[in-house]
Design brief:
Blueprint (H helix, E strand, L loop, with lengths): L1 E5 L2 E6 L9 E3 L17 H9 L3 H13 L2 E5 L8 H8 L4 E6 L3 H13 L4 E7 L3 H12 L12 E4 L10 E4 L15 H4 L1 H17 L5 E4 L4 H12 L17 E3 L2 H14 L6 H4 L1 E3 L7 E3 L7 H12 L1 H7 L6 H16 L4 E7 L2 E9 L3 E3 L6 H16 L2
Parallel strand pairs: 2-4, 5-6, 5-8, 6-7, 8-9, 9-10
Antiparallel strand pairs: 1-2, 3-4, 11-12, 13-14, 14-15
Helix pairs in contact: 4-13, 7-8, 9-11, 9-13
Length: about 400
């Protein structure tokens, strides 16, 4: 295993299966050198057990590196990780170019929120929609939104051609079709959209491959978790449909759906004292859908109360539909805009990341590679997370 140091960052180079492992990630525990990625990486109990039984020299090398500064794990099976120094330089760039595809209800709400909140980390906001009048509308509307006497305080909105979509640091996929109208009796609206949106995201994932896109491909459209996987596979298919690992690395794709489920759980926790501990001790895991996992607390986990709060969060969108409205504002702000900004700032947030071939939501951040939070998980909670993971793995 090769090891390099640049500045204060240590990089371990190791070869692992492309279809199951990221290209570049933040190494935060010695056990990550001893085994390939697994759902159990969310569980500190598991990582500690692996570390206790791993090669002593390897463990010491990892511990020494972790004590001295940031550590990356680079998977040499992904040929593009050879460009990791350029990738690290881009990660440190203060302001990023963000491009959005599709300006429907969700996309336009995301765009507006990014414009108002993103000046510290967004250089420009590029927009593209199949309807040029929609682009003209939002370019005009939002560039006429300004603070008096400080006309550059908010990022500028620019209209793009389709060919310019991937000339950016973050591409935000908001395209969608097949949303059931309000009043339709559908238990999980998100899965109704899957087949239609899978085709669209695959087209743009292949365009990202052709463009040799090296930024973040952010999926906002529902259902985000399986659409991330569809984008990953489509981007890495050759002309015969075979996986060749020449497209987007798995960590280049993230799904933005879990943020609103966490926010909905917090909304109900504020209303009911039974769930108050969630506000300071809780976590959210899994997909933006039926297999969501809300935990009232990690240290004081209560399975019954956690499942009750989970049910409230899952059904929140149905309550909005009962009022006669599409539930898109909170997702566009909590799951997308806020979480995208936290991602750009390198701060903790909720989004879906790649774990052993499956995209699933959990708390994470990207500072020196993607770092997914590991916690000492109670077994009952881990089994719920495992069930959610297995459900996502079944979706093709």
């Amino acid at each position: 295993m090769e090891q390099k140091i640049i500045g204060n960052t240590t990089v371990f180079f190791i070869e692992r299966c492309c279809e199951k492992n990221k290209g570049i990630l933040a190494l935060t525990h010695p056990a990550m050198l001893a085994e390939e990625e697994t759902l159990r990486w969310l569980d500190n109990f598991h990582l500690d057990d692996i570390a206790a039984n791993m090669d002593a020299d390897l463990r010491t090398a990892a511990e020494n590196a972790l004590s001295q500064g940031p550590v990356l794990l680079a998977n040499t099976a992904w040929k593009t990780v050879g460009e990791w120094e350029e990738w690290l330089r881009k990660e440190k760039k203060q302001k990023k170019r963000v491009h959005l595809l599709a300006l429907g209800d969700v996309g336009s709400t995301v765009l507006t929120a990014l414009k108002l909140m993103g000046n510290d980390c967004i250089e420009t906001l590029g927009i593209y929609d199949v309807n040029p009048n929609v682009c003209a509308r939002w370019e005009t509307e939002l560039n006429q939104a300004a603070f008096p006497w400080d006309y550059d305080a908010l990022p500028t909105v620019e209209i793009l051609t389709e060919e310019q979509l991937f000339d950016c640091d973050m591409f935000v996929f908001c395209a969608s079709k097949g949303i059931p109208p309000v009043g339709t009796q559908v238990k999980d609206v998100r899965m109704v959209q899957y087949e239609a949106n899978k085709g669209i995201v695959s087209v743009f994932a292949k365009k990202a491959r052709v463009a040799r896109f090296d930024g973040l491909f952010a999926v906002v459209s529902d259902p985000v978790d399986p659409l991330c996987r569809a984008a990953f596979l489509a981007s890495n298919e050759d002309e015969e449909g075979n996986f060749d690992g020449k497209g987007l690395r798995p960590e280049q794709i993230q799904g933005y759906g879990l943020g609103v489920m966490n926010a909905r759980a917090a909304y109900y926790a504020k209303q009911n004292q039974e769930f108050t501990d969630f506000l300071t001790e809780g976590r959210a895991f899994g997909p933006h859908g039926q297999d969501l996992v809300i935990a009232n607390s990690i240290e004081n986990y209560d399975d019954t109360r956690s499942k009750a709060l989970t049910k409230l969060a899952i059904e929140a969108n149905l309550r909005m539909r009962e009022l006669g409205f599409k539930p898109y504002v909170a997702p566009a702000i909590s799951s997308a805009a806020i979480s995208l900004l936290l991602t750009l700032r390198g701060e903790w947030h909720y989004s879906s990341n790649f774990l052993n071939g499956v995209y699933m939501g959990s708390k994470n951040r990207t500072v020196h590679g993607v770092e997914v939070e590991s916690l000492p998980l109670p077994e009952a909670l881990f089994q719920r997370i495992q069930k959610a993971y297995d459900g996502l793995e079944m979706i093709r």
